[in-house]
């Protein structure tokens, strides 16, 4: 896929590529069929421009998935449709397929999109779904731009447009360190995201001359979370008794995880007024500020330069604020529209 310099790029990089593509298109428009330098007139004998054929782009999202994944799937779909409506591109058709949030669903959705003529696929969201969708896309020679943040599924025709956790962790730890936070505890899920975040957190704390007092892991919810939280509470109490209190508690994750953990913080006797709560970008979801357990928490927010404009448009169209991740589908469709203006059959 010639337009991507690596297999992973951020929303900010996508915006840069989009601007470059639009600028190149503008230059081409100025040079093709322009005035003849000798006669000062257009070439009246030039053949008329042939109408462009429809470019079909597949969008795989977990529309029927239960819980938060289904909510995210709907927001991705709506953001993609918003981008298509704004740009008013008559030669691009968005083929939306429900991947159900499962590998099996992603495999079937990919097959359906390819049978419908998709020459580019956007999505899926989850790493396992990306891995399941990739073989059929590769076999068909169709590039896939997924929204997963798991680098292990990228490569060989699969590209990621996502919020990468390592830079986010660096940002929040650097900010915490600049505010005098030096001693940390962490509660990290035992999943793919957690396995990516944990070494990034350890490296960031070390880079900023901090100390990790305790790291606990959890899998699931309820008592599976409460026991690790109580272990962290015990470590915080012991550190205070030694005269070296814990400054911050790092809990990476998204809405579902944070709500489950947040409800149990008081029961575990962890006082977030004394220990600053830190998170990743997943903490930036609608109405997060209304959750008492998250009030005052620090997390890396999106770049306001593009986010505010998108969020206002989304809210005006759909009546509620978008989750942060919705902007990925918006950027992806804008990128696809810009690229669809390339030479016929060579857009992607």
In short:
With 348 residues, the protein is of the alpha/beta class.
Descriptive report:
This protein is of the alpha/beta class and 348 residues long. The radius of gyration is 23 Å and the shape is elongated. The protein has 10 helices and 10 strands. Helix 2 (68-87) packs parallel to helix 10, helix 3 (103-115) packs parallel to helix 4 (127-140) and helix 5 runs parallel beside helix 6 (192-207). It folds into 2 domains: 1-15 and 53-163 and 325-348, Rossmann fold, CATH 3.40.50; 165-294, 3-Layer(aba) Sandwich (Rossmann fold), CATH 3.40.50.2300. It has a 6-stranded parallel sheet, sandwiched between helices. The model is unreliable at 1-44 (pLDDT under 50). The longest helix has 21 residues, at 11-31.
Protein traits:
45% helix; 4-stranded parallel β-sheet; single chain; 6-stranded parallel β-sheet; disordered N terminus; Rossmann fold; 348 residues; alpha/beta; 14% strand; 2 domains; 10 helices
Q: Layout of helices and strands, plus pairs?
A:
Blueprint: E1 8-9, H1 11-31, E2 55-61, H2 68-87, E3 92-98, H3 103-115, E4 120-122, H4 127-140, E5 144-146, E6 158-161, H5 165-178, E7 183-189, H6 192-207, E8 211-218, H7 223-241, E9 248-250, H8 255-264, E10 276-278, H9 304-318, H10 326-339
Parallel strand pairs: 1-6, 2-3, 2-4, 4-5, 5-6, 7-8, 7-9, 9-10
Helix pairs in contact: 1-10, 2-10, 3-4, 5-6
Return the string of H and E elements: EHEHEHEHEEHEHEHEHEHH
Strand order of the largest sheet: 1-6-5-4-2-3
CATH class of the largest domain, named: Alpha Beta
Instruction: Identify the CATH architecture of the largest domain.
Output: 3-Layer(aba) Sandwich
Number of helices: 10
How far is the N terminus from the C terminus? Answer: 6 Å
Structural class: alpha/beta
Major beta-sheet overview: 6 strands, parallel
Which stretches of 5+ consecutive residues score pLDDT under 50? 1-44
Query: DSSP strand (E) fraction?
Result: 5-15%
Total strands: the figure is: 10
Oligomer: single chain
| CATH superfamily heading of the largest domain | Response regulator
- Radius of gyration, in Å, reads 23 Å
Give average pLDDT, whole number: 85
The third-level CATH topology of the largest domain is Rossmann fold
- How many domains? 2
Query: Globular, elongated, flat, extended or rod-shaped: what is the shape?
Result: elongated
């Amino acid at each position: 896929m010639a337009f991507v310099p690596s297999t992973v790029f951020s929303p900010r990089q996508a915006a840069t590529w989009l601007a470059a593509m639009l600028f190149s298109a503008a230059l081409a428009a100025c040079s093709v069929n322009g005035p003849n330098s000798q006669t000062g007139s257009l070439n009246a004998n030039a053949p008329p421009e042939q109408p462009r054929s429809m470019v079909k782009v597949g969008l795989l999202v977990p529309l029927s998935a239960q819980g938060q994944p289904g909510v995210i799937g709907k927001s991705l779909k709506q953001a993609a449709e918003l981008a298509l409506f704004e740009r008013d591109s008559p030669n691009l058709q968005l083929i939306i397929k429900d991947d159900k949030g499962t590998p099996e669903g992603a495999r079937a959705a990919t097959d359906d999109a390819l049978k419908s003529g998709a020459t580019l696929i956007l999505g899926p969201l989850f790493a396992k779904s990306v891995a399941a969708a990739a073989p059929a896309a590769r076999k068909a020679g169709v590039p896939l731009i997924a929204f997963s943040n798991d680098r292990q599924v990228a490569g060989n025709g699969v590209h990621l447009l996502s919020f990468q956790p390592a830079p986010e962790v660096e940002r929040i730890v650097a900010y915490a360190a600049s505010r005098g936070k030096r001693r940390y505890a962490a509660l990290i899920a035992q999943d793919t995201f957690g396995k990516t975040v944990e070494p990034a957190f350890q490296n960031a704390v070390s880079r900023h001359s901090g100390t990790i007092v305790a790291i606990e892991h959890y899998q699931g919810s309820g008592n599976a979370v409460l026991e690790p939280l109580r272990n962290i509470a015990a470590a915080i109490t012991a550190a205070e008794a030694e005269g070296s209190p814990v400054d911050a508690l790092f809990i990476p994750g998204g809405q579902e995880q944070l709500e489950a953990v947040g409800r149990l913080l008081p029961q575990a006797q962890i006082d977030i007024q004394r220990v600053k709560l830190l998170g990743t970008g997943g903490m930036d979801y609608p109405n997060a500020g209304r959750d008492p357990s998250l009030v005052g928490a620090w997390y890396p927010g999106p770049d306001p330069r593009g986010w505010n404009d998108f969020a206002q448009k989304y809210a005006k169209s759909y009546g509620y604020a978008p989750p942060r991740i919705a902007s990925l589908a918006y950027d992806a469709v804008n990128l696809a529209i810009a690229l669809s203006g390339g030479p016929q059959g060579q857009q992607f």
